Each structure stands twice: as C-alpha cells, then as structure tokens.
Amino acid sequence: MERNMIVATPGRPRRNITSKLSEELKATARRDVLLAFALLFAASSGFVQADPAPTTTDSSPSAVATQELSWPQWGGPNRNFIVEDGSDLASPWPEEGPSILWQKPLGGGYSQVLVDGATLFVTFRRGDNDVTAALDAATGETHWEHSHASAPFPEQRIEFGVGPNATPLLAERRHADGTSTKRLITVGFTGRLHALDPATGKVAWSHDLVKDFGGKQQRFGNSSAPIAYRDMAIVLVGGEQHGAIGFDIETGAVSWRSPVLDISYASPIVIELGGEDQLVFMTSKEIVGVGLADAKVKWRHPHKNQYSNNCAGPWWGEDGLMFVSSQADGGSRTLRLAAEGGKVSVEEIARERNLKIFHNSAVRLGDHLYGASGSFLVAHNIKTNEEAWKVRGFPKANLLVADDKALLLDENGMLTLATLTPEKLTVISQVPLLAKPAWTPPTLVGTRLYIRDKEKIMALELGASTEG
C-alpha cells in the first residue's frame, strides 16, 4: 500500500531546537542520553508489589534497550519526538507486522512510557487509584508499584477518563562529590505531584498543587508534563497565585516561581533566545515566554480557540520561528522571535486557520511541520504558510521520527512506518495493534517500540531481526 507522504533528515535541537543531523551531533546526543534522568511521580500511600505476568511472544534475550539509551520525558531526550541514537529500523515490516515481544494488561490514562536502560516506567488508573509502575523492559514483569487515591473534583469532566494523563519526568540532580540523586516525577489527574525513588518506588517527597499552592483545577485533568532545568523539575500550576513552579529535584523545595499565569494542557519547553534561557508554554488563550534567570515574562502572543484550551506544542527552531497550533477555530500561527537589548519582539508572520493540531504530537524538520490535523496527515511549510501535501487516513495520529523514517500511531490503533519529505509521504508498512482511543504517543529506544492504550501495553521489536 502506498500513499504520498514525507521524510526529511531529522535535526538535533539544542535543547528543543531542530537543526541538520551530523555524526558529531548524533554522538553528542548519545552522550547526553548517558546522563540518564531519574524519576519523579505521584503517591502518598501504598507501596505494593507486582501484578499479572505479561504475555511474552518472543523469548529473545536481546530485545531490551541498553543502558546507553533512554526516553526520560515527554517527547524523548530532546522533547521533540526526534530520535537521534542511530536506530536501525527494519523496512518494510513482515506482512503480519513487527515482532511483539510481550504485552500485558494496563489501566486507563494517556501518559507516555518512559525508559531508563532496562526499566520502563508507566502510570495508569486502577479503580480509584493512580498507579505508577516500574517494569522490566525485556519481559514486562513488574518490579514495583506505587498507588495513591485520586478522586476527581466535582467540576472535572471524566467522559474521556480520569487519567493519569501527564507524562512523568526522569530527573537527576548531580552533586559536587560526583554522586547524584534520581527521581521519577509525576503529576496526577487532580494535581497530586510525587517524586519517587526509581529504584524502589518509595516516595521521596510530594505536593498537592491545588491544596498546597492554590493551583488550577484543570477541567479535563492535569496533562502537562514536567520539565527538568538544572536542579529543578518545573511544573505548570496556575491558579490565582502561581504560574509555573520549579521544585528542587532532590528535596521538593520551591526554588523558582514565574509570575502569576494561566496554564492549559500542553507541555512546556525550554528555549535559548538572545543568550537567555526561557520557559515557553501555552496558556488557555496565549503563548508566553518566561526568563529562567529572573522569572520575568519576556514575551507573549495571543492564541485562542473557542474552547479556551491549548493541548499541543509549541514547536521551536534555531531560525527563531515558533509554531503554535490548536483545535477548532484556533488554527495555527508562525511567530518570529528576536531578542535585542534585553527585549524580545514577537511578529506573527503566518496564520493558517485550517491546520488544527489537537492533542497529538507533531515533528518539525527544517521549514516543515509534519502532523495530524483531524484525519489528515499534513506537511506544512511554516515560513511560507504553504501546504506541501495532505493525506487522509491518519486520525489524530501521534508522530515520531527516527532513522530517516516516521512512526505514526493513530487514534484507532493503527501503527504506520513511513518516510516523510516535503515532496511526498510514502507509507511502507501498516498494522493494527491497539484499541480506540489510542491517544498516547509511542516511545522508541533503540529498535524497541513501546505503545499503549487504555487497556494494555505492548513491546515491539522494529530492528532488522523482524524480517526473519
């Protein structure tokens, strides 16, 4: 089966900045990944052991990711859904699809799977509890679980589930004596923030963002993923007293605060502009940039839709262009940022009302953004505001790029291997694997792919071994 699709050479962001790949940059990415983030997640009660054994369909002992590789946060090592570790993906897949190494039941939620060497970290719902679990990456067996009660607020809407939806963060604080402290940080549906020891699942520290800080009660639950910056885990809090808060990774003490700002469902990024690091995130009606050195708002620009929520992006590049997109009448915008004399200017250079990325991941490669707008996969030139191509059949697909190929997982559970260029999209292989709504982006480490829906988690081998 073939369609017109697109593949461009992935670039390595400096933090979140995309540029052309080179062997030197790939080596740098591998060294960065070796620093392995640690884990922070939620729980104030109940540490329990294990659950049903996974169904293993491949006994190969070499299927697990190595210690050199990890997926420590939303979007992967560089938070941009571009994998730069030299993955050698088989192409095409066998007719029956790639090898399923194991699968096991999993509860509800849409958070991404994290990977730290031979261990996976997942969050899901079981009864009235949010659960965090550490799994063996090779077999799916449970090392530990931690759970805490999590009753939705009366005002929250639960028709899409009760989470947990925010992807955790693997974070590490390094000390002067050469030691380090690792945490697994998670944010629950109702704003319960926990930091766990990733080796044991025991709680290191915790906060209730609503009760302790007057944080915003998100109508559809907290979905924004924490981000690491130096010794902090930065979390979007909102409410009448806060915006974003930086918590010390080791102790949980507050070490940084932004001015009071609204928040929404999209996850923040860190960019460098004019020699200054900034935290950039979507509120319900705009995009804002906050200086990480002085905690002052440096710039802001409206981006509103009829529902007053923003669930995706933003996407940044070394060329100073910021792309934003949202559902319904929000559409998309390209903003040009420039810093001079300590001030930041924002110019809207393009507006496309028909490109509407809702809550799915998308990838920027060069001048083009590739992502699903409704049921269409779209290649959009963010500089010229021109649509390079549009192909139907990829409803709310999440996208990542590796080995000059694209992996797409749409909301119906169809997994697609393709190539993307500004000229066309070429579908190489497709296989249905999950149930609707499969809204969680896939996680790729080496040639191992981890996918989930609200009922199960699966490990797939995408390397050359799948061909025979």
Architecture overview:
With 468 residues, the chain is mainly beta. It has one domain (23-467): 7 Propeller (Methylamine Dehydrogenase, Chain H), CATH 2.130.10. The protein is built from two helices and 37 strands. The strands form eight sheets. It has a six-stranded antiparallel β-sheet with strand order 2-10-9-8-7-4, with no helix packed on it. It is globular.
Task: Give the topology.
Elements: H1 23-34, E1 39-40, E2 47-48, E3 55-56, E4 70-71, E5 82-83, E6 99-105, E7 114-116, E8 119-126, E9 129-136, E10 142-149, E11 169-174, E12 180-187, E13 192-196, E14 203-208, H2 209-213, E15 227-229, E16 232-236, E17 244-248, E18 254-257, E19 269-273, E20 276-282, E21 286-291, E22 297-302, E23 315-316, E24 321-326, E25 331-340, E26 343-352, E27 363-365, E28 368-373, E29 376-381, E30 386-392, E31 398-402, E32 405-409, E33 414-420, E34 425-432, E35 443-445, E36 448-452, E37 456-461
Parallel strand pairs: 5-31
Antiparallel strand pairs: 1-11, 2-10, 3-6, 4-7, 6-37, 7-8, 8-9, 9-10, 11-12, 12-13, 13-14, 15-16, 16-17, 17-18, 19-20, 20-21, 21-22, 23-24, 24-25, 25-26, 27-28, 28-29, 29-30, 31-32, 32-33, 33-34, 35-36, 36-37
